Amino acid sequence: MKSTTRCSVAAVLACMASAVGAGSAAAVSVPVTLPLESLETVLPVPAPELSTGVPVPVPGAPQAPEHVAGRMLPYGTLPQVPLSSELPVTELGVPVTEPLGESTLGVARATSEAAELSLATPGASLGAPLSAPRPELYGQPEPVLPELALLTPEFRGAPTAGVLFH
Fold first, then answer.
1. What are residue 32's DSSP bridge partners?
2. Is the Cβ–Cβ distance between 153 and 146 less than 8 Å?
3. Do residues 97 and 46 touch, judged by C-beta distance below 8 A?
4. 3-state class of 30 per DSSP?
5. Are 73 and 128 in contact (CB under 8 A)?
6. Secondary structure element (H or E) that encloses residue 36, with its range
7. What is the DSSP annotation of 53-67?
8. Are 147 and 137 contacting, i.e. CB atoms less than 8 angstroms apart?
9. What is this structure's pTM?
10. 46: Cβ–Cβ under 8 A, 6 or more apart, which residues?
11. Is 25 helix (H, G, I), strand (E, B) or coil?
């Protein structure tokens, strides 16, 4: 086997390995801590602490259009694109002060757990303005009203949260 052939095979195998690795990558999120200390100058209460993340959607492979007998255009002309992401952990801590004094009673915390989300973009299916060739018209198509079907977007997930006071 020539060295150029071996290099080509190695390059193809490397591309296939990277594609498999990229497809199985876990959903990620970018951590964000919001600076809310400036609220203390406006409001006479201690500032809450808020940390969360921004989910990064990972696109999947769209479903291929399906050819249906009797139709000139396939069903799902504009396919839906699936996206998956992870809703990150969000933590909110609010100090609770005594109404008549300056002491702090505790901290109320609201925490949401990480949850998997799956989305699908809207899609469309179009019908041709001509029918299939008809034998009674000597193989000529007949004009028909065009059809349009919109596929609704999908959003699936089950986020949970809890509230604590300590």
1. 52
2. no
3. yes
4. strand
5. yes
6. none
7. EEEE-EE-PPPPPBP
8. no
9. 0.59
10. 40, 95, 97, 104
11. coil
| Tokens 């079907």 found at | 149
Distance CA 42, CA 147 (A): 58
Question: What's the pLDDT tens digit per position in 118-141?
Answer: 999 999 988 888 888 888 988 888
Cα–Cα distance between 157 and 13 in angstroms, integer?
36
Nearest to 28 by CA among 50, 51, 58: 58
Instruction: Let me know: does 93 contact 48? Beta carbons within 8 Å.
Output: yes
Which residue from 45, 73, 57, 165 is spatially nearest to 111, judged by alpha carbons?
165
> 74: Cβ–Cβ under 8 A, 6 or more apart, which residues?
65, 66, 67, 68
pLDDT score recorded for residue 109: 92
Q: What is the pLDDT of residues 137-156, one digit of tens each?
A: 888 888 988 888 898 999 99
pLDDT at 124: 92
What whole-number distance in Å separates Cα of residue 161 and Cα of residue 166?
17
Question: What's the Cα-to-Cα distance from 25 to each of 7, 12, 143, rounded to whole Å?
Answer: 27, 20, 49
Cα 81 from chain centre: 9
The rounded Cα 3 to chain-centroid distance in angstroms is 44
Nearest to 16 by CA among 26, 28, 5, 8: 8
